[in-house]
Amino acid sequence: MRKSKAARPAVLTYVVFAALAVSFVLAGAEIFGHAWHSGFWLGRLSLKWAVTLLAVYLFLLAVLAAVYAALFSKHGKKKLLDLFSALHPWRWWLIALVLVFSLWLVFFSSYAFLLRGFFTRASIYAIPLMLSTGLLTGKGAKSFDWKALLLAGLIHAAVIVCAKALILVNSFPFALHWSEGNRLWDYSIAFGSQRYNYSGSEPIFAQIDPGRQLIWGLVYLIPNVPIWAVRFWNAVLITVPYALLGWVAFRPLLEHRRQWLLAGFWALAFLTQGPIYTPLVLSAILVALVRRQPIWLALPVVFLAGHYVSITRYNWSFAVGIWVVMLCFCDAVLQNGGLTWRDWLRAFALGLAGIWTRGALIIQGVVMGLYNQLVQGIQVVDTSSSPLEGSQAVENLEGLRNVVTQQPFIWSRLLPNEVYPPGILLGLAVATLPLIALLVWLARQGYWKTVFWQRVALWLGLGAFLVVGVIASAKVGGGADLHNVDMFFVGLALVAGVAWESGLAGRLDALLNSSPTLRSMLFFLAVLPGLTAMVTGGPQRLPDAERTEFVLQRVQGQAACARQYGDVLLMDQRQLLTFGYLGDLPLVVDYEKKFVMDRAMAGDAAYFEQFEADLASGHFSMIISERHAILYKEPEMEDTLGDGKVEENNAWVHWVTEPLLRHYESISDYRDVGIEIFLPKERNFDCP
Question: What's the predicted TM-score (pTM) here?
């Protein structure tokens, strides 16, 4: 046994070194692919690229040699450790310098588009990580420290995730991606509706839930807040709450404060893999804050958390109730070694409070619907008066059925596909299996004590979250990332806090020295989120300031002209109204792009009959939208026009583009900012 245990670290070391060597070789091949055809100085290489390639290859070879020496040569390891010991006083400055340079190179520099290959990005991630590990290894150490590697991995992951969020912070007046511009408009309605020239008798309708509109809209309380500040607020909301959840879910044990601090960094990186919508994270923070408080205090806070998620997304209606039951059972075992009737009563009361606003009504509606159908034979009638209202009425059996079935499922998105290359199942496995394996290992080794009913609650709760998330990811409009598996991600993070407190915190140092299995799992937990963020991030492709100003002035002039002849409809780019780029142009609420897409995916023929009637009558003097073309896509068809998802694109073309182009014609196509402007074909005016 001793012999096999001694052999395991050596095998792992060879595997790690081989993986690094292969990554460097493939990174060199990716860069070579960009360099080829650059000139004729050497083959199809220009002189500049030939010199650049030589420098890159020599650098990668030197790094690989240093890693080989550190892993397999006692003399080489000693030399490197002596070097890092000499640099130890300046370690934090050097780590910051290395990190900033690598992030600038990948996320903000003009070279980023040449360095977008997977293995190139992986190498740019691995090299600073290894340097930071050496710098964080204790002065005078005889070997590189696993704790230093994990610390470096968590720091790098947190910083990379924050840098990736900051990419979108700029003053560019047009939308940065498909829905960004209209989302900025959505968020402004709650606290910034006075920004709009709106004469309608009804409140301004925006297809956004109150939960998201509330927190993203807070920034509009600042008078004349600029667009860059709103984008910065978005960057804060998709990073800081993730870290806060980690710091709340993991208790700040006095003797383990450093581990607790790093738990926030880990939660930030882990949840960003979704990414997870902030309202769900904020509700989880409330649940974690009162998990051990007296029930008189916990009840209203849990109710508030459950109410907040229920007004945000209907499929979150049971999230708070399930989380709180899981935590009640886990805390009972952690504190008392088992469950008592008081623990069951507390779990029931808090769970009910968490689902009271909507979840309990859904259960009541489903039970009554099944009773009427199965026992009395009464046909349940959909009481909704329109597809929109029916899509929101989930508190009865028929309404819930409509919501689940009104849009088709695309099960192929669970597997590798062109929309999300790894596919939902593989992407989810990479993101969560290291944590799941760690939790199972801690329980099986006895480091985290669990009892039967606690395990039942955990498996049923997390299993329900997983099934619902996977199904939601397969619906049309989903499957582009892991955000629909959000309740599962947050549930795992909360359970991780319990497991850490139960057995891992006090044993971590000893287990890192004795357990290769634990080291491997923690390595992947610390490293994979940062690697994912590094590989998937990149700078925005934006036109220069002069071109941006020219297009903006053209749009302003054309809109000012068209408003003299009727309503100007902004299907897209409504942030131009939000931030005053189009002056006091009247707001037309109808036919906002995201809502229109939702109706298209649902195949709502009645809605589009009215849409075509308005187009045929020339109701709008001008329509500002994204680019349009009658282009039905097939899987793997490459084109920059339209939605990259085949089914969504084809629904949009059928229901929106075809009727639009029957009655309107394009007069301006500003494709570098994603805008096309249309005027009625039958008109007695022109706005050049």
Answer: 0.89
Are 577 and 182 a contacting pair, CB within 8 Å?
no
- Please, are residues 526 and 157 in contact by the beta-carbon 8 Å criterion? yes
Place of tokens 């470096």: 152
pLDDT of the residue at 611 = 95
Give the C-alpha separation, 277 to 293, whole Å.
Answer: 26
- Cα separation, 605 vs 386, in Å, equals 12
Strand order in the sheet with 675-680: 567-570, 620-625, 675-680, 664-670
Q: Is residue 255 classed exposed, middle or buried when 0-12, 13-18 and 19+ CB atoms within 10 A define those classes?
A: exposed
pLDDT category, 398, cuts 50, 70, 90?
A: low
The Cα–Cα gap between 454 and 621 comes to 63
Tell me what the mean pLDDT of segment 238-266 comes to. Answer: 90
| 3-state helix vs strand vs coil in the chain, percent to 5 | 65, 5, 30
> CA Rg, the chain, in Å?
28
The alpha carbon dihedral of 104, 105, 107, 109 has a sign of positive
452 burial via Cβ count (<10 Å: 0-12, 13-18, 19+): exposed
* 3-state secondary structure at position 586: strand
Residue that the structure tokens 């910051």 belong to: 96
Q: Is the pLDDT at 12 greater than 70, yes or no?
A: no
Q: Please give the Cα distance from 432 to 572 (Å, whole number).
A: 36
Kindly tell me the burial class for residue 492, based on how many C-beta atoms sit within 10 Å of its own C-beta (0-12, 13-18, 19 or more).
buried
What does the DSSP 8-state code read for residue 623? E
The most distant pair of C-alpha atoms in the chain lies apart, rounded to whole Å, by 91
Calpha distance 658→664 (Å, rounded): 10
Could you tell me the sign of the dihedral formed by the alpha carbons of 216, 221, 227, 232, in that order? Answer: negative
Please list the residues that pair with 568 across neighbouring strands.
622
Element of type H or E holding 669:
strand 664-670
Q: How far is CA 625 from CA 419, 474, 667, in A?
A: 23, 28, 12
Q: Rounded to whole angstroms, how far apart are CA atoms 238 and 249?
A: 18
